Amino acid sequence: QDSPSRILDFAAMVFAQTAGDVASLLFGAGSFFERGAWEECRPFFAPGATIRQVTSPSSVPISFDEFIEQMAGPKGGLLGLPKYSQRVVSLTPEGFVEQHAITFTVQGATVELEAVVVVSCQESHAKEGHKFLIKTLDEYVDPSPVMDALRKTQTKKKAAQLPVEPAVDVTGPGTVVLVTGASSGIGEQIALRYAKRGCSLVLAGRRRTPLEQVASTCRGLHQACQALAVVTDVSKAPECSRLVQATIDTFGAVHRLYLNAGASQSCLLEDCTQDTVRELMDTNFYGSTVIAMEALGHLRSAARSSSGAKICVVSSLLGVVAAPRNTSYCASKWALHGFFESLRLELLDWPVSVTLAVAGSGDTPIL
């Protein structure tokens, strides 16, 4: 006779297979969503199921019928049918989490978004049909690439009539890129990508030796690439100010600002101290916001004489959902979203975009 643990293991396996199948039917090649077969999805959704596209902290869920109505209306016609790629599915006790890239054609322009979809399911007791049905589907996505494409289309004629100053090649020499947390992990990879294009780089991090090694590697990837390593602890406001000033003193401008530096947490709140909370907020929240405040005027100046400037904040899935043992970390990332979502709205009349990159799990030293 099977033990209770074996029975639970078997039940979990059946559930996981069903959740994985649902993920493929919704987002795989030739899936319902890729074909625009919205009504065909209905059997996979429980009565009263909700769908929410989370583009800001104020996003609200809608019913499945409201979702179909939206996709059949102007919104669906504007974006066209999606194509999904780079799919990574993680099974959870409640359902599954899927990370993927979405490609749309927006008024003739190809736009790619990165999204994280969190799905919870419930068991169906019907004799026929699917065993597990979707209860909630939350898609976390940054809409700024779509908004940028629409804005460029709408202003194309006006821009053609205006005198244009010599533009900076945003993908090559002449572009100044500032990256925090650049001594390893995501920050290092961002730096290497821009180095291959010959950009001028300012790399910030707390550890001098690995930071200078990354800078040296960058210089060897393109003859035009210049790389300045600035040892910086972003939890200290004076060092943040000094970092931005060093960028301007050395290169005279900043066109790309990648706010990537961060610290992690893995402990219950009862095991944390007040210093733990303050340290995470100082690094993850203030370390990004202070640099953005110091650099904002320079980004606006650079945008006037180029094709635009960009701020990218490397956040986390835990900036939009909660998790145990991460109370202070979640708080710091949720605060980031509120700050930079608001800043994006303040910059609507400026060619300075703000992107919040919601990263899932990854093999980086922070973990």
TrEMBL record:
The keyword NADP applies. Residues 175-364 form the Ketoreductase domain. The keyword Flavoprotein does not apply. Transmembrane segments: none annotated. GO terms for cellular component: cytosol. It holds the Pfam family adh_short. Keywords: NADP, Oxidoreductase. SMART domains: PKS_KR (SM00822). PROSITE patterns: ADH_SHORT. InterPro entries: KR_dom, NAD(P)-bd_dom_sf, Sc_DH/Rdtase_CS, SDR_fam. One of its GO terms (molecular function) is oxidoreductase activity. Belongs to the short-chain dehydrogenases/reductases (SDR) family. This is Ketoreductase domain-containing protein. It comes from Noctiluca scintillans.
